[in-house]
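Reopening this ticket.

The earlier resolution said the output was attached, but the attachment link was broken on my side. Pasting everything inline this time so it's all in one place.
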Amino acid sequence: MSLAASAAAVPPPADTVVLLHGLGRTSFSMARIAADLDAAGYRVINATYPSRRVPLETLATEWLPAHVRTVTAGSRVHFVTHSLGGILVRLWLRECGAPPNLGRVVMLAPPNTGSELTDRLARWAPFHWATGVNGRRLGTAPDALPRALGGWPAARSALGVIAGDRSINPLLECALPGPNDGKVSVASTHLAGESDHLVLPFSHTWLAWRRATLDQVVAFLRTGAFAPR
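Inline output:
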């Protein structure tokens, strides 16, 4: 029996999970996670946000709070994010503070200390077109947004990070240092204050669709730790 199936046997009906997709994606990229969490007994909010058109500060202070307010009073609210979605949650916490009902957070392939790929492509016009107003802000410089946000508020919420170390694009893989998923290096996914960190053999794009990833997401939301592998 999978971890998701076993979790479904004892569902936490009051808990909500907010899903946040990555840059340039839509809620469809989180659809399999949404289905898994729904089967495990969670209420799921999986919405598309304008990641290329609207600055992260506006998303963090207006768009995300509006969705969090839809959570039933007294319910714990967890987050599962992919890539840029993790930076959005961190910025939201900095700007708005952690709500008293904040539960656990799982980040998939987050550029928590920035992406070296952004450093290489930031001055390339097609990169600006593809990533919009937020892409160029994800570099590794000390004053770039990911590093400027600081560590995770561990006292308020448990954070689990899942990184991938396989790429489907050899050119992008070679542009990144050390193990990476083709867009984010494993090293850059770490964040001071994280509760647990796991590396799985998947690419950046498909990490959110793999069975092993889904099982580990459910395990962390239920226990605050990833299952032994």
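Reporter confirms the inline version is readable. The chain has a mean pLDDT of 89. The chain has one domain: 3-223.
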